[in-house]
Amino acid sequence: MNSLNIILCICCSYITGSIPFGYLIGRFRGVNLFEVGSGNIGATNVWRVLGKEFGILVFLLDFAKGAVPVLLTLGYFSEPSTGGKEVAILAAIATFLGHLFPIFLKFRGGKGVATGAGTVLVLMPWPTVMAFLTWITVVLSLRYVSLASMAAVLVLTFAQIVRLLFSPDSSVLLAVFTIVGTGLVIIKHRSNIKRLLAGKENQSMVSTTGQAVVRAIHVVALGFAFGSAIFFNLLAAPTMNRSFQEAIANAPNDRTAHLPITENLSEEQKKSLGSALFGTAVGPLFPIFFNGQLCTALLILITAMSWRSVGKIHRIRFILATIGFLLVGANYFLSDYVSQIRLLRFSTDVAIATKAKADFASWHLISLLVSMIHILVLMGLMPLAAFLPDRNPSSNPKLYEVGQKSIDHGGVSPEGNLSAISPSKNSNSNVPSGNVDLSAPIRY
Question: Model's pTM, two decimal places?
C-alpha cells in the first residue's frame, strides 16, 4: 500500500468536502447565509431563505461531494491487498470533516447531514436506507427537520453498532466513524436542541399529500411487521424445524441424499443433529427478520407519536406502538443471548453443555413468549389502522399547526382554517431580504 497515495486521497477528500456549495449559491443570489435565517450554510437554511429549488440543489451537491470521494477511493484501491475499505472510510471521515470545518470559510461549515449521508450510503447502504426512512418519517410526522436529522444519525449509529456486535467481519473503524460523526452532528445541532426543549423550534408545514405519505408509511410498516411476525414465528420456523427432525429421524431418505448420516446415532443425538441443521438453515434469517421488525416498529412508533394528541383512539395507538417497539428491542438482544447459549450446548465440557441445554430451553421459551406478546400488540394495532386521522387538515387544526406551537403565532385561525396562513414575505422575490423570519415554515 502506497502511503503517499493514501495521504493524497485523504487531502483531496477533505478539500472536496470543504467546497461550501450552500454559501457559494447564496453569494450567487446576493445573500450571505451566515447573516440570514438560521445562519447555517446547509440545505435547510437555503430552502428557507432562497426557496425549495435551491434547497434541493444544495442538498444534492452536498450529498454528492460526500459520496464521490468515497466511490473514487474504493475504485482506486480496489485490490484486496490495498485495504480499500479502510482507506475509503478515512476518505469519508476527511470529506465529512471538510464539510463541518471547511478551510475556505475559516473552518465554519454546515451540520454535516447531507454530506455524511453521501459517505455512509456508499459504505453501509442498508443502514443508510433505514436512517433515511427514519428522517422522512420524522419530518412528515413530527415536522421537525432538526429532530429528524438527529434521529436519523442515531438510527444509523445503532444499526452499525448492532452489525459490529453480530457480524465479526464488520469494520471497527466504520463504527467509530458513525459514533464520532453522530456526536459531531448532534453538537452542531445544539441550538436546535435548546429550542426543541423550550418548545420554540421551527416546524415545517406538511401538505395533505405529506400526511397521506405518513399514513401510508404507518400502514405499510404495520402490515409488514404483522405479516412477517406471523409467517416467521408461526409458520416458517416451526415447519422448518419439523421437516429437519423428520428427515433426520427417517434417514436415509431423499432429504439426506439417501446417505446413512444417522448411522450409529442415538435418538437423542438424532434430535440434536436435527436441531443443529435447523439452526444452520434459520440462523442467517434472524438478523434480517429482527432488523426488519426493529425498523418497522420504529416507523410505527414515530407515525403514531404524531397523532397521540388528536384523540383517545390515537393515544391508545401510541401506547401500543411504544410497547411493540420495546418488545422488539428486548427480543433483539434476547435472541442474541439465546444464540450464544445454543452454541454452548455442543461444548465438549459435559457440565457446560448440560447447563447450556437447561438455560437454552428457558431463555428460548422467554424469547418465544415475547414474540407472541408482540404479535398480540400488532393484532391490537391492525384494526386501529382503519381509524387514522382525517386527511382534511382543517378538521384537525392541532395536527397542522404551523411554525410555533401556539396558535397565536402559528398562522392558523381559531377555526382551524389554513387559509389564514400568509405566504413568506420572500416567496415572490428573486433575492431575499437580509432578515428572514425563522418561523416561516418549510413546505413539504
Answer: 0.72
